[in-house]
Specification:
Helix content: 40-55%
Strand content: 5-15%
Strand order of the largest sheet: 1-2
Number of strands: 2
Number of helices: 2
Largest sheet: 2 strands, antiparallel
Bound molecules: zinc ion
Number of domains: 1
Length: 78
């Protein structure tokens, strides 16, 4: 008997994934996620317009930052 395991499974249940058509914007760390956005998402899209733009922009910026950083030189942080 390992009650710890059962506790963990219970927690996964508590994640409560957003419903179909609801924005899947997730917030949280360490595997503890919540879905605070109650906006509606377009069919076939994961996020509401607001968060979709956020995700798209941040991905673009990250790529751009990485590209410009590679030109400048190595950022030894690992
Ligand atoms: Zn949203």
């Amino acid at each position: 008997m390992v009650p710890e395991n059962k506790k963990k499974a219970r927690k996964m249940d508590d994640l409560r994934l957003p419903r179909t058509g609801q924005c899947k914007w997730a917030e949280g760390t360490g595997g503890d996620y919540i879905f605070p956005c109650k906006n509606r998402a377009e069919p076939g899209v994961s996020y509401c317009a607001e968060h979709h733009a956020l995700v798209y922009i941040s991905a673009e910026e990250r790529r751009r930052n990485r590209e410009s950083r590679q030109q400048i030189g190595s950022h030894a942080a690992a």
